[in-house]
UniProtKB/TrEMBL annotation:
Coiled-coil features, chain-numbered ranges: 179-206
Gene name of the encoded protein: sh3glb2b
Protein's name in the database: Endophilin-B2
Family: Belongs to the endophilin family.
GO aspect biological process, one term: membrane organization
Lineage, opening ranks: Eukaryota, Metazoa, Chordata, Craniata, Vertebrata
Keyword tags: Coiled coil, SH3 domain
GO cellular component: cytoplasm; membrane
Domain BAR: 24-266
Residue stretches making up the SH3 domain: 315-375
Classification via SMART domains: BAR, SH3
């Protein structure tokens, strides 16, 4: 094994003198050469840029890939310079599960056909998410990573070198000071003073040159900010395009679902239950009690009729003024119009946020928050 013992000893000596100088500075026993104010400001600005860029980079990674295991896997692929394998998004996986479930439930059933429709849209949403992730990684994450792993590492290396040059300069200043004190006692030490002055001039030159290199690199942070600003605009544009595409797909999905026949109606032939429409209720001729009504049943025999008992109100009826327009969500609810007066009452077991409202021959549930109850 070939190594230079003298060089090794020299490097060890330099390291030791730097360590002694650094320790004495911390203890206040040695003077320290201060950097000029402009360079100090550049260093502080560079540290601020590095710290916030690192935080933004890490949090953007979490936003784009919440799964920590997946992020670790991608990290190792990048370090090994291997292509990251394509990963199925959660939306695509959910869509596939819905399509598989529809096959088992029967694509001809209301539930199965709806699962197929929603599943296909979920896969399209997952594809849009995949495209957004790829675009964001290229346009935003990659420039931030390049700065942290490239430019900033170079700046950090030159800053460490500048600190070493400063320590060497202060060591030379201390030697010259000691040599001059010794010269005052004996003229024989004049050679030591000349040697110390020469070393000081060399150290000062190297320090000034390294300070200039470091300054130029730190001034390049301004260009980094401009580049990151452009990347930030691209990231926002990618987000806007992604969310706009998702909104468009969801609107299309809602329209497609509205065209599917009502899947909430229970099939009497399979359930054995009678399902009635609110519009099929008529007064029973000759009925002595107003609480009895005639209900047309949707069974295999449409003409079959049955008598259904309607429970009377649990409390007395009251008048209520409608404060806002309300559009009924389904046939069990009653649409409301602002400033109209309706009759309301409650039924046993009802949600306290709802009442039964009546307007002429129309009746249905109404939300309490839309009403002003009158005494």
């Amino acid at each position: 094994m070939d190594f230079n013992v003298k060089k090794l000893a020299s490097d060890a000596g330099v390291f030791f003198t730097r360590a002694v100088q650094f320790t004495e500075e911390k203890l206040g026993q040695a003077e320290k050469t201060e950097l000029d104010a402009h360079l100090e400001n550049l260093i502080a600005r560079g540290d601020c840029t590095k710290n916030w860029t690192e935080k933004i980079f890490r949090q953007t990674e979490v936003l784009l890939q919440p799964n920590p295991s997946a992020r670790i896997e991608e990290f190792f692929y990048e370090k090994l310079d291997r292509k990251i394998p394509s990963r199925t998004t959660n939306g695509e996986l959910l869509g596939q599960y819905m399509l598989d479930a529809a096959k088992d439930f029967g694509p001809g059933t209301p539930y199965g056909s709806t699962l197929i429709t929603v599943g296909e849209y979920q896969k399209r949403l997952g594809g849009a998410e995949r495209e957004f992730l790829q675009t964001s990684a290229i346009s935003f994450l990659t420039p931030l990573r390049n700065f942290l792993e490239g430019d900033w590492r170079t700046i950090s290396k030159e800053r460490r070198l500048l600190e070493n040059r400063r320590l060497d300069l202060d060591v030379c200043k201390a030697r010259l000071k000691k040599a001059k004190l010794a010269e005052a006692k004996a003229a024989l030490w004049s050679e030591e003073v000349d040697k110390a002055e020469h070393e000081l001039r060399v150290a000062q030159t190297e320090f000034d040159r390294q300070a200039e290199v470091t300054r130029l690199l730190l001034e390049g942070i301004s260009s980094t900010h401009v580049n990151h600003l452009r990347c930030l605009h691209e990231f926002v544009e990618a987000q806007a395009a992604y969310y706009a595409q998702c909104h468009k797909l969801m609107q299309e999905l809602q329209k497609d679902l509205s065209r599917i026949p009502n899947a909430f109606v229970i099939n009497p032939s399979t359930s054995g239950m009678s399902v009635c429409s609110p519009h099929s209720v008529t007064s029973l001729p000759g009925a002595s009690s107003p609480s009895r009504s005639l209900v047309s049943t949707n069974t295999l025999e449409p003409e079959t009729l049955k008598i259904e008992e309607v429970k009377p109100p649990a409390t007395g009826t009251r008048k209520a003024k409608v404060l806002y327009d309300y559009h009924a969500a389904d046939t069990s609810e009653l649409s409301l119009f602002s400033d109209e007066l309706i009759t309301v009452y409650t039924m046993p077991g009802m949600d306290p946020d709802w009442l039964i409202g009546e307007r002429g021959n129309e009746k249905g549930k109404v939300p309490v928050t839309y009403l002003e109850l009158l005494s």
